Amino acid sequence: MISPHLPEGLAGGLVTAHGSIPPGLPWWQAWSFDPSLIIPVAIVGWFYLRGLRRWEQRSRAHPWWRTALFYGGLATYLLAMESPLDRLGEHHFSMHMIQHELVMMYAVPMLLLGAPTTPLLRGIPGWLRHAVVRPLAGTSGMRFAYRAITHPAVSIMALTTVVWAWHLVPGWWEAALADQKIHDLQHFAFTAVAVLFWWNVIDPRPLHSRIPHLPRILYIFGGSLPKHILAAMITFSSHTFYPTYLEARRVIPIDPASDQQLAGLIMWVPSEAATLIAMAIVFFMWVGASERRQQRADAERLGSAG
Q: For 86, 97, 138, 211, which has the most beta carbons within 10 A of its beta carbon?
């Protein structure tokens, strides 16, 4: 008999949201090839490259490392979604967590560090840029919406609400395991709030964060703290968060309790490391900017004295 908590795909071998790994198939061979994701990612990559080629007279530098980070971000996103991690997430909570952390803490920041705005705008078809993007971007409503959703308080609230809701609202996580559309919605929500959060940390040129460098450190800390609290709750919990994983076939030799603890640690430790690195980088950016301002001020004083 199938457990009432267990999606059919795990108990009876039917395909569920992720597509479970069939018995006898080595997990490292359980790759996914979803054209509905691979094709859009390939198109975005092509538009970016096309935009760089058309951007001949550049008003600002676009070093090679930005391009490398952008394509590294696309590759990381595909790795999270199409590698065996995706199907292992049907069997193990910890593997599902690795997938989400790759997207939110690594792929999205890499994409934004690639400064994609100008290359993508130059790379999309001209009719789309002139007939849709420019008129829409020029409206007061769109400018108001942009300023509203990128407000630091809104970004932190959105990140906290989405992450906590998907993990704590009864039935949401297991619905994502059982239904592909809900699963896609979950991934879209995590990606969107990660973009909002990192947008205020990384200057996605030519756009800029509205937060000065030093306060960004407090923003990173404040935005990541609720996620770390949730990670601690998962790590030290005495009960199972998601009954599905109690009865799922174990592909990796780890019991459900240890798997949940590992999932919490994966949400906690690598995320904490990434936020500390981001805070350190922002601090040194602030130091560099302060030194440049001081050098300009000194040069102006010497010029006026001469």
A: 97
Judge whether 265 and 235 are in contact, CB under 8 Å: yes
Structure pTM?
A: 0.87
Picking from 213, 217, 234, the residue whose alpha carbon sits closest to that of residue 93 is 234
Query: Which pLDDT tens digit goes with each residue over 185-230?
Result: 999 999 999 999 999 999 877 888 888 888 999 999 999 999 999 9
- The residue type of 188 is F
Q: Which of 285, 293, 263 is nearest to 89 (CA)?
A: 263
> For 169, which DSSP code?
S
Other beta carbons within 10 Å of 304: 7
First to last CA, the chain: 91
| Contact assessment for residue 25 and residue 69, using Cβ atoms and an 8 Å cutoff | no
Burial of 95 by CB count in 10 Å (0-12 exposed, 13-18 middle, 19+ buried)? Answer: buried
Compute how many other C-beta atoms are within 10 angstroms of the C-beta atom of residue 182: 17
Cβ contact 62:49 at 8 Å: no
CA distance linking residue 18 with residue 290, whole number of Å: 49
Q: What are phi and psi of 74, to 5 degrees?
A: -60, -40
Spacing of C-alpha 13 from chain mean position: 31
**DSSP per residue, 54-87:** H--S-SS---HHHHHHHHHHHHHHHHHHHSHHHH
Q: What does the pLDDT look like over 177-186, one tens digit per residue?
A: 989 899 999 9
| 3-50 per-position pLDDT tens digit | 344 444 444 443 455 577 888 888 888 898 899 999 999 999 999 999
